[in-house]
Write a structure and sequence with these properties.
alpha/beta; seven-stranded parallel β-sheet; 8 helices; 51% helix; globular
Amino acid sequence: MSKKAIVIGASSGIGRELAIVLSKEGYEVGLTARREGKLKELQASLPNPSYVKAMDIQQADDARAKLAELINEMGGMDLIILNSGVGGDKSWEGEKSVILTNIYGITALGNYAYHYFSEKGSGHIVGISSVASVRGMRQLPVYNASKAFLSSYMEGLHHDSVKRKRNITVCDARPGFVKTPMTAGNKSMPMLETAEGAALDIYKRIIKGKKRVAYITRRWWWMAQLMKRMPGFIFYRNA
């Protein structure tokens, strides 16, 4: 029997490439995002059965209802990838969009998935956070904060699963710079990884290997340690 995975934010970037990897590995995949046309284009290229459900996770109650519909259409769910995220800008409208997507919307679906897996008796939740979760930075403070929130939320769900013996695996993938539509305007991105490369690393170490926290790719672990330990007088002057 095929395993069944749902990818939130599957229309582009890491989410799209993860859907491709999962389908090639034998999963039936549920594809969600706002742009239904992009999802159907992706669906047509996948080797295994897939399902499309357009949703806007900023409309959290509607998105939760559509996630329930998708799970029912697929006949269950074993794995969910909480991937959808936006970068925004420093205007209030830009920051509000980040909060509604990266925190409000993702939490709404993460909450639904955790309760679904609790009732089922098993499951796997993967949150796609970021190396940006390590420290707040001036470029997009709310984006860093939203990714720190997701990392902390994943740890909290993991803690609850362990304490209650729920048999739910909760993992946090923390990519560094990845070539996606969201990062297309950034000029300085050291150690840039392709979306395909990032997705393969996430599959091998997080989805298959079930590592609880992994920097994507491995070399970003060293950068994260440097960022964590950098004294303020250096960080605030140079970051």
